Amino acid sequence: MKDGKINVHYLTRVEGHGNIVVDLKGGAIEELRWEIPEAPRFFEAMVRGQSYADAPHITSRICGICSIGHTVASLQGIEAAIGVQPSEQTILLRKLILHAETVQSHTLHVFYLAVPDFLGVNSVIPLATTHREPLLQAIRLHGLANKWSDMIGGRTTHPINMVVNGWTRIPTPDELRTLRQQITDAIPDLKAWVEIVKTLEIPDFERETEYLALKRDDEYAFYNGAIASTDGGTTSVPEYREKIKEFVVPYSSAKHTKAARESFMVGALARFNNNYEKLSPLAQWAAEEMGLKPVCYNPFMNNVAQLVEVAHCLEDGVHIIDELLAMGLEEEVRSVKVSGGTGVGATEVPRGLLIHEYTVDEGGTITGANLIIPTNMNHNNIERDLKALVPTVVDRSKEEITLSLEMLVRAYDPCISCSTHLLTVEFV
Amino acid sequence: MKPRIAIFDFGCCEGCQLQIVNLEEELLDLVALVDVVSWREAMTGHSDEYDIAIVEGSITREEEMERLKGIRQNAKILVALGACAHIGGVNCLKNFFEMDEVLEYVYGKDAKHFDTIPARPLSAVVPVDYAVPGCPIDRKEFLEVIKALLLGKKPPIPNYPVCVECKMKGNVCVFDKGMTCLGPVTRAGCGAICPTYGNKCEGCRGLVDDPNLDSQKEVLQEHGLTVEQMLNSFRMFDGYMEVAK
Question: Quick one: CA dihedral A212, A213, A214, A216, positive or negative?
Answer without folding.
Answer: negative
